[in-house]
């Protein structure tokens, strides 16, 4: 049996594509969704399925949207709207 599922950071990849998007004219990108937003939505769906079965601990990594000062603070539960509703989801540092 799996007792606990631990995610040790780097949920989204660092990408030059995000930097390129910010350099484009705003009118060209107004209908685009940032790939990091889509990635976090997919991750939340996955975590929700895992949290239905077992406890899950989520810790931030270098590429995650978290403060880079040490000790890093936990990722905010609003980043995981579905899975954070479960008592088995724990955002940790």
From TrEMBL:
Q: Which UniProt keywords apply?
A: DNA replication
Q: Which Gene3D superfamilies match?
A: 3.60.21.50
Domain DNA polymerase alpha/delta/epsilon subunit B stretches = 4-93
Q: Which Pfam families match?
A: DNA_pol_E_B
Q: Which GO terms describe its cellular component?
A: delta DNA polymerase complex
- Does Magnesium appear among the keywords? no
Record family assignment? Belongs to the DNA polymerase delta/II small subunit family.
Identification of the protein by name: DNA polymerase alpha/delta/epsilon subunit B domain-containing protein
What is the organism of origin for this protein?
A: Rotaria magnacalcarata
């Amino acid at each position: 049996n799996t007792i606990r599922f631990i995610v040790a950071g780097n949920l989204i990849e660092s990408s030059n594509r995000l930097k390129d998007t910010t350099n484009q004219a705003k009118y060209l990108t107004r209908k685009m969704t940032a790939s990091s937003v889509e990635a976090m939505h997919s991750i939340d769906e996955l975590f929700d399925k895992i949290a239905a079965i077992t406890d899950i601990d989520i810790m931030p990594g270098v590429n995650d949207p978290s403060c880079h000062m040490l000790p890093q603070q936990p990722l905010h539960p609003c980043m995981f709207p579905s899975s954070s509703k479960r008592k088995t989801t724990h955002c940790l540092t």
